[in-house]
Amino acid sequence: MSFRERTAWITLITIVICFGAYYGALLAGLVRPATWQAFHLGLLCIIGLVVLQVGLNVLAALLNPKDAHTPRDERERLIHARSHVIGYYVLMIGVAATLILTHVVFKGDDFGQVIVRTVNIGTFAMVASALSVAITQIVLFRRGY
Q1: Positive or negative CA dihedral for 132, 138, 139, 145?
Q2: How far is CA 138 from CA 3, 26, 104, 142, in A?
Q3: Could you give the residue ranges of the DSSP H alpha helices within the chain?
């Protein structure tokens, strides 16, 4: 497995763990969305994601320094470009959904709940985009594209 594929796996796994915990707690009703508890959980998940990604990528680079410092070849540049094009489309759909759902007001919503819902949907759009990039890279590396 190449270093670039390994970093895509690291990205996929860490995002699923960190944001799976956050959105899982919200959807299961363990944390109410518009509370400080949800804010702190989200902040903890973001910090955890950064620490895990940096730590695991440094470890991967230390385990195989030669592969980590090799410049990207043409195939890896194409995989990078294709995966980010797909991620861009996922992000644009997510941004459109965020804009539309911002204007949907449910009975009993106050302004704070609308803001929190908008932030959660926008964050989910970014997470879905990053996941689509990582999954696309893994699939293309595995297919030998």
Answers
A1: positive
A2: 11, 29, 36, 6
A3: 3-28, 36-63, 65-68, 74-102, 111-143
pTM above 0.85, yes or no: yes
Rounded CA gap, 145 and 133, in Å? 15
Cβ-contact 5, 133 below 8 angstroms: no
Domain boundaries, the chain: 3-143
**Would you give per-residue pLDDT tens digits along the chain (145 residues)?**
889 999 999 999 999 999 999 999 999 999 988 888 989 999 999 999 999 999 999 999 999 889 888 998 899 999 999 999 999 999 999 999 999 988 887 777 788 788 888 999 999 999 999 999 999 999 999 998 7
> Quick count: other Cβ atoms within 10 Å of Cβ 42?
21
Using alpha carbons only, what angle is made at residue 50 by residues 47 and 52, rounded to the nearest 5 degrees?
105
